[in-house]
Design a protein that fits this description.
This protein is mainly β. The protein is about 5% helix and about 45% strand. The chain has one domain: Distorted Sandwich (Beta-galactosidase, Chain A, domain 5), CATH 2.70.98. It contains three helices and 23 strands. The strands form four sheets. Strands 6-7-8-9-23-19-18-13-16 form a nine-stranded antiparallel beta sheet, with no helix packed on it. Strands 5, 11, 12, 14, 15, 17, 20 and 21 form an eight-stranded antiparallel beta sheet that branches. A four-stranded antiparallel beta sheet has the order 1-2-3-4.
Amino acid sequence: MTTALNTQFGINGQLAFREDASGLIVANINNALGSASLCLQGAHLMTWQPRSQTVPVVWLSRDAKLAAGKSIRGGAPVCWPWFGPHATEAGFPGHGFARTVPWRVIESGTEANGATRLTLRLVASDKTRAQWPHDCNVDLTVIVGETLRMEMSTENTGAADFVIGEALHTYLQIGDIGQVSVTGLEGGEYWDKVGGTNKRKQDGAVSFSGEVDRVYINTAAECVIHDDKLRRRIHIAKSGSLSTVVWTPWVEKANKMGDMGQPDGWREMVCVESSNAMENVVKVAAGSKHTLIVEYRAASL
């Protein structure tokens, strides 16, 4: 399979496909601007590091495992077609099925600035149709260079409207969770999911001294992660998204997960997720398309 992929979609010196020991296919991108890796299962971007940075910008747990039907700890899991638990079916997977099912490559290329472009499409099956009986195309385009751009589009090819929740659940690499802050959400409302679900208002920058699990609503703002330990800022700009999720498990929850990179891997990541969740779910009319776009940029101090 990798031979066929490399023949049709490989780009000499930039993009190559390989089979992991797990049997899953991974796309490796390496160009003059940056490098990345992406697992075709789940269209799961695992790593990204621009050439200007000595430390990766997208975090992958050192205990991350690739396995058929399982999500990968770190990177940018695709949450679709719902975010969080399913509204009515407790047996359906949290955050939807997109991150654990096969996707296929449909296009690759090189941008004018030398960045590498790769587009994947979710593969529908009897199992996915049992959970999502709507006709649609779901594509993820990743553009890897000095910046990382991700475009997730949902095209309703059926005759009836449907509603989706979604997120790019991106884990960002930081120096230490106790020494970072996130700006861009000041004054915004959020649902606080730690210890129950309560609506609160953000006062100043977001800082971290314990578990944080928040869904900021009605915000299209650019967010910035201020990281004094690594002496950099990570800028997260988005469109087609009105929710931002901020998450850190902290020590107790991280220890229960088992794949966060023991003993302290959780201290080196924070999730700032561009999403459409809770009251910001999206109605996709029949014959129309919705696209969520996020661009990540790192700037050294």
